Amino acid sequence: MVSSVTALTIESWTLYPFGILLIAARIISRRILLGSFSKLQIDDWLMLFVAITFTGVIVSVNQVSHNLSNYLPPGVAEEFTSEEHDNAVYGSKFVMILEEFMLANTWLCKACLLILYHQMTLGLKQNKLVKFVGGYCVFGYVLVQILYLGVWCRPIQQYWQVPVDNSQCASYYHHLITSAVFNITSDLLMLYIPLPILIKARLPLKRKIILCGVFSLGVLVILSAILNRYYNFTEPYGSLIYLDWYTGEAATSVFVANVPHLWPLLSRIFTLGAFNSLRRTTGNSSGNNNSSGKGFYPKGSGNHKGSRARPYDQHGYIQSESEERIASAGAGPGAETTWPLSDSKNGATLELGSMGSKPMGYAATAAGGNEKDDNEHSNGIMKTVQIQQYSNEV
């Protein structure tokens, strides 16, 4: 029968390459989308730090499992040999290191997703919620760190003392409760950001379900966090099950934070092509009646049909020469939201989805036309906006 230590080693080092490969795939996907590694944005660089913290979690979990710690039944530590005592001190230090890596991994993944949500909701009322959740996450992380390092166990050396004078220095109960509260509540708030937008969007049901599924993966992170704490509080001394859930929660956070960015790479590998998903109409006061302006056009050009140039600035944001006002699903009934367009004589490109970093690979093409929306009562010529997903030709 495989021992719990061996099983944990196999599980953790099996999940680890999947997490690292997913981070690498995200970076490659972003390179395909933005055209250069130099154009990677702040959430992409943060994800490289996540690769470090994720590595730290896996290494620390295995060090803790192979050594004793100060979380022991009363009277046991007093009977240790000198070697066992040294192992317990060493293992206890790695428990503290593990907790720091875990906190950093969890909150960095939150930061990457919040940056994505901020770009998705620019100009929408949900953007205020993104900023609130971001502030809540920063407050929670700082408070958890202050309590962990300066309140629950004093002096801090008690965290690796064997035996301990303060049980909180071995069990971490107060710390685990406070960190779980901020972790789970912030994840619940983050789930509420993209889902209402996608539910209200004019998308075919199949594609709406797919997108809602992608952005609902945070439920798995919440479930992992709950089970992590459950086994921390219920398992007896010496059980390593909580380490399994530390590994599982860290890996799930990495997976969820990177999956929304993979479409450009998958499209390139499997030649998936465009992902037409939505047609909308907006008013246009010009007399342009050409509806063939589909695609991406460079700034300031004339007839750009077939052009491969991208109208993005050095940060991956679309260059704006004019603005169109379109009704947004997230802006409330009757409200309008300003979206940046790169206009030209025959067409204009509209950034939608991530508003700049395009992690989901969405863009929109606005072309002159006379298609009218049933909900529109304007007498002017209309523009048709078609949302399409980047293919490997973009």
Inertia-based shape = elongated
Strand order of the largest sheet: 1-6-5-4-3-2
Unreliable segments of 5+ consecutive residues = 274-394
**Radius of gyration (Å):** 25 Å
Mean pLDDT: 74
Report the biggest beta sheet as strand number plus sense, adding barrel if it closes: 6 strands, antiparallel
Number of helices: 11
Oligomer: single chain
Helical coverage, percent range: 40-55%
Main structural class? alpha+beta
Report the sheet-strand fraction. 5-15%
Number of strands: 6
Order of helices and strands: HHHHHHHHHHHEEEEEE
- Kindly, what is the distance between the CA atoms of the first and last residues, rounded to a whole number of angstroms? 53 Å
Features:
11 helices, 394 residues, disordered C terminus, 6 strands, six-stranded antiparallel β-sheet, single chain, alpha+beta
